[in-house]
Amino acid sequence: MKWREELSAEIERLRPDRVFVLTDSNVSPLFHWDGTVLVVPAGEESKSLDILAGVWEDLSSLGATRRSLFVNIGGGVVSDLGGFAAATFKRGIRFVNVPTTLLAMSDAAIGGKTGIDFGGLKNEVGAFRMPERVIVDASWLDTLPQSQMREGLAEVVKSALLGSEDVYGELLNLPETLTAHNVGHAAEWSARFKEDVVAHDPHEKGLRRILNLGHTAGHAFESLAARVGKPIGHGTAVAHGLLVALRLSERLTGLTPGMADEYKQKILNRFYPALPPECRDVPKLIGIMAHDKKNPAVGEISFVLLRAVGEPVEAVRVDEKILLSDGCEGN
Amino acid sequence: MKWREELSAEIERLRPDRVFVLTDSNVSPLFHWDGTVLVVPAGEESKSLDILAGVWEDLSSLGATRRSLFVNIGGGVVSDLGGFAAATFKRGIRFVNVPTTLLAMSDAAIGGKTGIDFGGLKNEVGAFRMPERVIVDASWLDTLPQSQMREGLAEVVKSALLGSEDVYGELLNLPETLTAHNVGHAAEWSARFKEDVVAHDPHEKGLRRILNLGHTAGHAFESLAARVGKPIGHGTAVAHGLLVALRLSERLTGLTPGMADEYKQKILNRFYPALPPECRDVPKLIGIMAHDKKNPAVGEISFVLLRAVGEPVEAVRVDEKILLSDGCEGN
């Protein structure tokens, strides 16, 4: 497999004194590694202080030093947890991510955001710390159920909308069943695209904010669904958020009319379930968006929009009235 | 007090949405603060995961955001713990250190090394994260017992040897009783000196290593003393380590003969107790030094030495034979 060769080359280049692999209970049966492997339970629950302390303990008792290398093989939970463990063990040791899910390849494993959940809040504790390298090997994708592929697809679509008409074209023409073969190229492109954006803005002070496309409304959908006891996946939420952003872009920033509908027919409706929230929820959704911590000022709702595919416009302030009038056609 | 004015100015400049002060049970009675103050028990035991989790919990439940400011008022324990809490809360919020001990002013609070002890190891978990500012106000020093002043003095002497003949001259002429008045100037100079060194080398890849002057032998003294059940303070250990470095500098790097003796008479003998280790311990000390993780290669013992006061020479490899023959005159 490609990832093994690239990882060997990376180890050759970095010359660590020891290598420690972190993975989860879903991924560990999928590969063999001659060396130390730490396995955490699969699932978001592993992004906890207890599990983190266990990783620190293992590193410490197994003799990891400042010259050791940590390798996170898994989805976003593994790279978030393992990246944070590496960022803080002996004030920081080097790490490499080998993402195994579409979401991790296109988003979570890239960009140096690491962390754990704490006090019931996601990523409440963490650090910015860049991996030495992210090794993207699309062949992992054939180990995933379709539901997880679809959850990951939304971030790939987002990146394509931000950065490449060609890749977006590929995505509009995907067959029903997602495979390493048909989304692999877009996944690898998406990883490199995010790396480029982050390299220009590691601490999210400017350019990196474009990655928020689809997330303003997406987060609101996600929060509201959780509140009413019908939680939806992050990918589903973002996929619906992208439609809102495309509709607003047609209205406000000159995106060619019809693109939002094309997205809805060819991507949203084919890969994602409809949302529980209905028209009467629009004011509530607006309330949630008004409290998004990424807004430039409290109460001002700001969106990343598009002039065209590949031409994002950052931080467009959108009046609540427009959202109210647009909200129902949107979904 | 000067620190209050400077802190107000800093808050004015940084415009945080909230300010959280962290201090310990020794320091909290010494000042009043209109606002949220988190108090941890005084002592190294507070550099623990439990106490850290408590600080995260408090920040979270009190509504700290990414725009909040953390202010660490205390000695090295407070700035190490509080700096790490700030470095990791919501992936990093800004913090300011207000060191209240001589050791923290001259060393611990400066340079961005933060962390906690874990699994019985000092600073096993932590991060490099620069404070927005270190506010050095020597008037805190008059709140300290003489023993703690002396423990802190060693790092001030070290900085002076590395960077200023004038300040070193002041230190050679200190009266027996240390006060804010007589060491304040050297303490403030020492803080700025370390800031300059660190600014050139934040991650300890080059220049910053000069700050290790006196620490190669110092750490060995400290470890051996702890092992034989007669622990000594870090300052005492470094003060004795500085004598070893000065003697080696006379022999190997051209330091004017007599300077080591002058240091011994005017500083070491006046402010520090003799060490438990004796001549027969020299081979053991060498063994400990050979395992220092800061050596360029395993088994090679490397020292920072001086050509003159203010002219350090980094990473001089010293043969064990020289250490064996020199070891006993040294102490």
Textual characterization of the structure:
- Two copies of one chain form a homodimer.
- Chain A is globular.
- In chain A, helix 5 packs across helix 7, helix 8 (215-227) crosses helix 9 and helix 9 (234-252) packs across helix 12.
- Chain A has helices at 2-14, 49-61, 76-88, 102-108, 146-163, 165-172, 180-200, 215-227, 234-252, 259-271, 282-290, 320-330; strands spanning 19-24, 36-40, 69-74, 94-99, 113-118, 121-128, 133-134, 302-308, 311-317.
- Chain A folds into two domains: 2-144, 3-Layer(aba) Sandwich (Rossmann fold); 147-327, Dehydroquinate synthase-like, alpha domain, CATH 1.20.1090.10.
- The model of chain A has no long low-confidence stretch (mean pLDDT 92).
- With 331 residues, chain A is of the alpha/beta class.
- The longest helix of chain A has 21 residues, at 180-200.
- Chain A is 48% helix and 16% strand.
- Chain A has twelve helices and nine strands.
- In chain A, strands 2-1-3-4-7 form a five-stranded parallel sheet, sandwiched between helices. Chain A has a two-stranded antiparallel ribbon with strand order 5-6. The first copy, chain A, has a two-stranded antiparallel sheet with strand order 8-9.
- At the A-B interface, helix 2, strand 5 and strand 6 of A face helix 2, strand 5 and strand 6 of B.
